Amino acid sequence: MHTGVNGEVLKIENLSFSYEKKDQVLKDINLTAYSGESIGVIGANGIGKTTLMKLLVGLNTDFEGVLEVAGHPMNQKNIAHIREHIGYVFQDSDSQLFLSTIEDDVAFGPRNYGLSEEEVEKRVEEALAKVHITELRHKQTYKLSGGEKKLASIATILSMKPDIIIMDEPSIALDPRNRRNLIGILNEIDSLKIITSHDLDFILDTCERCVLLDEGRIIADGRSEKILMDKELLEAHGLELPLSAGCRYKQNIDNVQG
Ligand SMILES: Nc1ncnc2c1ncn2[C@@H]1O[C@H](COP(=O)(O)OP(=O)(O)OP(=O)(O)O)[C@@H](O)[C@H]1O
Ligand SMILES: [Mg+2]
Measured from the CB, is residue 43 less than 6 Å from ligand 1? Predict the structure, then answer.
């Protein structure tokens, strides 16, 4: 994969964006990400997480500032090329799955890359097995449950083996076993991963780095263990400590008190 001159896979400088020329949803965002990093993007409802993810895949291009993916400036000319590097899991699975069966959706990416039918078949089998939905292979998409659709969406990007994985609320709708399995899958992949979630325990388990957004700006960018343990910081921006950090926080307080 190409990178920028300093080896960055993602370069965002002074990025601002508004829908329909109204109030800015994203204001002066600066973020550089390198190969192998895993970055959680957190923040309250409606704060701009999905908007930022959509900019990264070129679903909106009328932003201000610099946005470079895999060494290429994001613009109409480069979008198709940039997308070859990115696997994007939509927050809303119905936007993701557009073919009639799961098998077709999971095969779509590899087939588009021009891989042989033999390789496509291998990728499909592997991806379905990884998220434990092999038996749903021939099922019609519209008949799936919410969680099954999420797992199928995740399979559609696993089959692509992308350099950059962007997942918008991947753990939403997953039961504890499937959620735990997804954590294991993500931790085995060394692509650049950018994950938004309100499940802060999920972020803690999958992302070393975390970016907190509020009012369209980056409020904090640092180690997840630090940001996600900072009760005052999280509460000041509409969030709460993740459950596991809450337990550790209480233990610390108990120890201090005596
Ligand atoms: N297509 C659109 N046109 C106009 N406004 C939009 C559009 N999509 C999103 N918005 C607005 O932009 C803001 C940010 O939305 P976004 O979906 O990025 O939030 P989010 O942080 O992902 O929230 P959530 O946690 O609920 O998923 C919200 O105020 C939303 O109403
Ligand atoms: Mg969102």
Answer: yes
